[in-house]
Design goal:
4-stranded antiparallel beta sheet, alpha+beta, Tetrahydropterin Synthase, Chain A
Length: 300
């Protein structure tokens, strides 16, 4: 707004002198040139007496090149014209993207890379004057690539291969490590790291190939274990079935044996006899072939 007011003041100031020159040449008959020149001058000076600080910013006062310790909050801010300047410092959340890969190592000494790293940070309003006066080119160098790379390498060094690729563990740890690095560099409470996002974490190609081979071997091993377990279960089932069958048969024989009396056994012998007399008789020392004596052996 003050720029617009200053522009109007310049236009009125110059316009007043133009009208004054035309009057001297008798080309216009207007007598208000002096008030116009005065109004233009007043508006131009008034535009230098204030500035408007937007929401989310603070104004750093610089008087004759000297940065004041206390910054001004957002809103209308009065200043000494031509002597005092107000420099805006952004206190909103800001993102810095690091496009290049950041290489590091895990606790297992495995080389790993992180890409698509985005750091979200904000500058404390109370520290705006300090940042402006102590950090050269603070907009580009406040959260530097070197600092972020070093912090991420430090974080990955404390994690195993599995955890180093887990964003849920790596991102909070990277945020904590970057915050500590900034606190050590600028002091506590100057810059706040709000979030760290890592799009991708990957190992070297050789390591990925080794992991793939290991996973394939593990998969084959697990499949073989399943097959072996099935075979064991099948064998156990078959053995159990045979055991049950044998037990059943033994139980049946026991029941049958316990139920056979001498009369029943004699009756079974009679039922099985085909009417033919024994062909031999005698004891263990003498055996007589009855068939040879009776001739029945030849008939058969």
């Amino acid at each position: 707004m003050n720029t617009f007011i200053a522009l109007i003041g310049v236009i009125l100031f110059i316009g007043g002198f133009v009208l004054l020159a035309l009057k001297k040449n008798n080309k216009v008959f207007f007598n208000g040139q002096i008030p116009i020149i005065a109004a233009g001058f007043v508006l131009f000076i008034a535009a230098q007496c204030f500035t408007i600080i937007p929401t989310g910013y603070t104004g750093v006062r610089v008087i004759l090149g000297q940065v004041q310790d206390r910054a001004s909050n957002n809103g209308l801010c009065w200043k000494i014209p031509f002597v005092e300047n107000i420099k805006l410092v952004n206190n909103k959340q800001q993102d810095i993207e690091f496009g290049n890969k950041i290489w590091g190592e895990t606790s297992d000494r495995t080389v790993i890379s992180y890409s698509g790293v985005t750091v979200t940070y904000s500058i404390s309003g109370e520290k705006s004057s300090w940042i402006y006066s102590h950090v050269s080119n603070y907009k580009d160098s406040l959260v530097s690539t070197t600092l972020v790379s070093s912090a991420i390498k430090t974080a990955s060094k404390t994690l195993t291969d599995v955890d180093a690729t887990n964003r849920g563990k790596m991102e909070p740890l990277a945020q904590e490590t970057i915050q500590k690095s900034l606190d050590n560099k600028y002091g506590n409470g100057v810059i706040t790291i709000n979030k760290v996002i890592i799009d991708n974490a990957d190992f070297e190609d050789s390591y990925n190939e080794a992991i793939a081979a290991k996973q394939q071997a593990q998969l084959e091993y697990e499949q073989q274990q399943i097959t072996n377990q099935k075979n064991v279960e099948t064998a156990k089932a078959e053995a159990e079935a045979k055991k049950i069958a044998a037990q059943g048969e033994a139980d049946a024989n026991a029941i049958l044996a316990s139920s056979l009396s001498e009369d029943i056994f004699r009756q079974m012998i009679i039922e099985k006899w085909n009417g033919v007399l024994p062909l031999v008789t005698g004891d263990k020392d003498t055996i007589i072939d009855l068939g040879a004596l009776t001739g029945s052996g030849k008939e058969q």
